[in-house]
What does this fold into?
Amino acid sequence: MHELSMAQGIINAVLETAETNNATEVTEVTIEVGRLAMINPEQLQFILGVLIENTIMEDAKVNFEEIPAEIECHDCDFQGEAVLDDSDHYAPLVKCPKCDSLSVEVLNGKDIVVKNIVIEKPDDT
Ligand SMILES: [Zn+2]
It folds into this structure.
């Protein structure tokens, strides 16, 4: 399952950062989810919730921020937010909003990125 490996990757990245910083607890995580990352955010959130049990990020508040799909059109040189055909959530069609062309290059919105984590350290008083 796509979401499972995504979730595992996110958790590994967070825990690695937490460890490097000698964290005792992760309190908050912000994850940027590209509009074209082809994942189901609810499903991702659910799997994350299961996988973080018994880790130091068990009680972390997980925030999701959606990143819009940005494209460059090969036909009319439009650059900006794309029109998405959402009928199939997992493989949306990306279209140029200006000329309806499907010949576009995706500039942004394909990735899932851990944007920010908030940790607690033993020394924090
Ligand atoms: Zn166009």
